[in-house]
Amino acid sequence: MSMEPIIRVENVSFTYQVSQDQQIPVLQNISLEVYPGEYLAIIGHNGSGKSTLSKHLNGILTPKEGDVLVNGINTKEKARIHEVRSRVGMVFQHPDNQIVATIVEDDVAFGLENIGVGLEEMKERVDFALEAVGMSAFRHRPPHHLSGGQKQRIAIAGILAMKPQCLVLDEATSMLDSYGRQDILAVVRKLHGEGMTIVTVTHHMSEVAEADRVVVMEGGQIVLEGTPREVFAHQDRLRELHLDVPDASRIAALVHAELPAFAPDLIHNAEVVAEVGRLYVRQAEASGS
Amino acid sequence: MSAEFELTRNITIGQYLPTASVVHRLDPRFKLGAFAILIVAIAICNTYVGNLFALAVCLWLFQVSKIPLHYGISGIKPAIPFIIILAIMQLLFYGEIANGGTVYFQYGIISISSESIRLVIVSAMRFVEVIFLSSVLTLSTSTTELTHGMERLLGPLEKVKFPVHAFALIITIAIRFVPTFAMEMEKMMKAQASRGADFGTGEWWRIVQRTKDMFPIIIPLFNVALSRAEDLILAMEARCYMPGASRTRYTQYKAKGIDYAALGASVVISVVMLGIPW
Amino acid sequence: MTQPIVDVQKLSHVYMQGTPLSHVALNEVSLQVQAGECLAIIGHTGSGKSTLIQHFNGLIRPQSGKVIVNGMDVSQPKIDIRSLRRQVGLVFQNPEDQLFEKLVGDDVAYGPFKMGLPLEEVKNRVKWAMDLVGLNFQEMKDRPTYALSGGQKRKVALAGVLSLQPKVLVLDEPTAGLDPRSRLELLGRIRRLNREEGLTVIFVSHNMEEVSQLADRVYVMANGKAVCEGTPRQIFGNQELLREHHIGTPESVDILYRLRERGYDINPGAFLPEETACEILKLIQR
């Protein structure tokens, strides 16, 4: 790709220091680029290093070896960390643990206060961010009465207000029920449609199917990479890594095994339906002629 | 019995009662300032009539803030034992120190004089007034406004390197997490009770045992609090929070005429209260 | 029909009764669970599921209506509540939060120890419970709990409840927040407890894949009321019902409905991926 990446991860290794002489390697020589407008999914079972990698993308963690560059700024440059973090925003797993203020709109403004945005602009940005996640009606509410999905939308609004180029979701839907998750996915889909770069770390394969590119991690390394279609084609490999595939892929593979004409590389429900339609019509024609 | 574990559901910090009165609409900085002035005046005032006047002002405040008086009275109830103990101490021992007024009774260091009786009555009145005042304040001001107001009032302390922003943020976060931890505690009690734990049913003198019984709740609560704190720090850092860095403020308060009037009124009331010679 | 092991009759519950914040959590709910059954309770957040299951072991006593568990009437103030809580093991959401002992074995032993059992019996039960959840007793009992992974901690917590040797196991969102690997393993363990150990299992879940794989019967709640009940096939085969009560569906069911909407003759109750594949094959190979 000729485009300049927003985030460039170069040969990054990271270890957790457990005690003086014991270190646990978590990332091993990882390189990855995230391009503007891209929708990237990172998957892997717990302990594969995917969460640690995502925390490197905005300088919450800095590499032991290698570099992470955000728009050319090295995340190790302490003096410019504000620039990095306002460009790459991050939403975390627990809805309850990332809300700071006692009133919704105060919370959305928290990041803006930190980077010293003036009052008039702050008001505009808070309005915009709450509108973008559909939570304007809740702006004066205390957050603890909101549902998990609503809290996560507030957390996203708090990031959006900072006008980032890239939104990182670190298992942001894993604590939500299916409706909360659908809400968040709809918001993310809309933002991506408007040009936002999205990086999502998730266990939900139906979310992964929506991404442009998938990175599969195991043992601190990237072991598979490609479009969702390419990655989900490796069903056996994924099973070895203790990962799911979307039901659509599994069903397509099962049908394909019995009936080779049926395309095996389907990842969306709609594709399965279309494929059934294609073969059904052909069969009807065959029997008709 | 059915409400065995439901205690925490009722926790509200602050007890904001939104009646949209003029008192509710006051700028929290001015409101806090005015209440502070009144409370200082009450602390100084030691005359019967002055305190009666102050009591009248309190009742009037309930009236204008449209808060039913029983909210204030229910605030007094828990303080009654304390008021009584204080009154007895003052009644018995203060006469000796005060050496003024007529002595009615003397035995060793115990001395009851007209001075000590006045002090007992005035102290009790002060107590009631302070409770009434703080009730009106907390019932008419949300916790958010309270922290904002306090932060602004403490603002000048920043000149002497007092971390006002950090202090206000700590209080905000504490308030923000009260309901979360209340729910957490309820869940923890229920979960452990489901495994056969019992809390506080042992004899009261077996303090060690009863304390041990609480471990299955306290230890997990600490763990949960720690992991929440870690998460929160990450989330705050991800939104560019830097301890000690200068920040702008989203909520701005603009004082209106009524705010100055309230502050002025509190000064006038204080002067009158302290000026009454009886 | 035999006497149900859990019998709920017209149970109602109001939180903070008599205050402006009062809120009806349960409204005349009735439910019978037979011994050995595996029942899923589903419904939107706030539909009253959690309140209902907390009645099963007497954490909440009935305000009106009846709850009878294994012959014990929970509304009677004088019943032996400890015995009830031993018979009904309740596992809360994210139960790994409740571990408090330093070592795995000690934490699992907490319940039996509180029952005042002799040491040997406590040990046997801990071993038994740890085996059931797939934790090796010798290897794991002296491990510190804080060093375990999330999935392992959850298994320890489950063992801590199983060590009470309950007849009924009640779980609130048993696999929420786990990765696919731990989720599948835990589901397998729960299924085995139900099918092989004969435990009656009642679980609350938002995850419809999980419901479809585990439950014999599904009980649907909305706004504190029972909406309907049936086998997973009946429930997932009823699209109008699912839509009306905002119940999610397994992905496979979504595919089946889309096919049916296009006019194909397909059985929407065939929700396991293998069955869905069969249905599709039948359709295009006919």
Can you tell me about this structure?
The complex is a heterotrimer of chains A (289), B (278) and C (286). Chain A is α/β, with parallel strands linked by helices and 289 residues long. Helices cover 40% and strands 22% of the residues of chain A. Chain A has helices at residues 50-56, 81-87, 104-114, 119-132, 148-160, 178-193, 205-208, 228-232, 235-240, 247-258, 269-288, and strands spanning 7-19, 22-34, 39-43, 65-70, 73-74, 88-91, 166-170, 197-201, 213-218, 221-226. In chain A, the strands form 2 sheets. Chain A has a 6-stranded mixed β-sheet, sandwiched between helices. A 4-stranded antiparallel β-sheet of chain A has the order 2-1-4-5. The termini of chain A are far apart. Chain B is mostly helical and 278 residues long. Chain B has 2 domains: 20-141 and 256-278, no CATH class; 186-243, no CATH class. In chain B, β1 and β2 (110-113) form a beta hairpin. In chain B, α2 (28-44) crosses α7 (143-154), α2 packs parallel to α10 (257-275) and α5 (80-98) packs antiparallel against α6 (114-140). Chain C folds into 2 domains: 1-79 and 167-231, Rossmann fold; 98-164, no CATH class. Chain C is built from 12 helices and 10 strands. In chain C, the strands form 2 sheets. A 6-stranded mixed β-sheet of chain C has the order 6-7-8-3-9-10, with helices on both faces. Chains in contact: A-B, A-C, B-C. The interface between A and B is large, with 42 and 31 residues. Chain A: Keywords: ATP-binding, Cell membrane, Membrane, Nucleotide-binding, Translocase, Transport. Chain A: It is found in: Cell membrane. Chain A: GO terms for molecular function: ATP binding; ATP hydrolysis activity; ATPase-coupled transmembrane transporter activity; cobalt ion transmembrane transporter activity. Chain A: InterPro entries: AAA+_ATPase, ABC_transporter-like_ATP-bd, ABC_transporter-like_CS, ABC_transpr_CbiO/EcfA_su, ECF_ABC_transporter_ATP-bd, EcfA_1, P-loop_NTPase.
